[in-house]
Design the sequence.
């Protein structure tokens, strides 16, 4: 966990997966593989941090294009609707982190989501988890055509929020992503556990725990 001694940030930028929501691609693989010619292990290899998923989450494939590639790779024969449901239903809330974001909003502190993600996942999350609608804005890889830790992704956050450098505090579970933000002068917090993250954010913002 790393931060600089800086004035209180004006915007807190949250990663989504493993910060606000847990996820398990194995769940999708187990749900989808029975309608394919591939076992759950092989199906997971096609969707979990694969080159295909990176293309999709970078905006290089439409939802239908991604589905078609999955059919080609795995022999999946279910409908697009069945695929979308099984692929997306992999998330669960991290209550302490959601409560942190909501408490910041209640104090008038701006909060944004900055995530490497895809359209099917976001559509599912928006419909399943009400907290997702409570942010000031969203910078999503598939919409901007760039993924963390590419510099263009951080530039997109700066442009969208209107803030830069130490005015931004970024929480992410992946070290390479917070290092990318630190290189631009953002305040950073490498998230590992809410029991560490929540009080640390409070200290940076001058909030009594």
Sequence:
């Amino acid at each position: 966990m790393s931060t600089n001694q800086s004035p209180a940030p004006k915007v807190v930028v949250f990663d989504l997966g493993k910060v606000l929501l847990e996820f398990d691609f194995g769940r999708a693989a187990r749900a989808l593989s029975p309608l394919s010619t591939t076992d759950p292990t092989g199906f997971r290899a096609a969707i979990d941090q694969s080159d295909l998923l990176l293309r999709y989450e970078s905006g290089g494939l439409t939802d239908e294009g991604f589905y078609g590639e999955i059919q080609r790779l795995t022999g999946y024969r279910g409908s697009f609707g069945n695929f979308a449901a099984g692929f997306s239903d992999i998330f669960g809330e991290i209550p302490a982190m959601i409560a942190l974001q909501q408490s910041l909003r209640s104090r008038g502190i701006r909060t944004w989501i900055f995530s490497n993600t895809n359209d099917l996942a976001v559509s599912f999350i928006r419909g399943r988890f009400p907290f997702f609608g409570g942010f000031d804005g969203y910078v999503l890889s598939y919409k901007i055509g760039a993924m963390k830790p590419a510099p263009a992704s951080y530039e997109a956050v700066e442009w969208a929020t209107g803030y830069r450098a130490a005015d931004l505090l970024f929480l992410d579970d992946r070290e390479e992503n917070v290092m990318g933000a630190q290189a631009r002068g953002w305040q950073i917090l490498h998230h590992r556990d809410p029991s560490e993250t929540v009080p640390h954010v409070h200290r940076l913002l001058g909030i009594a725990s």
Q: What stands out?
A: The mean pLDDT is 96. The beta strands are 11-14, 21-23, 91-93, 110-115, 137-140, 168-172, 187-190.
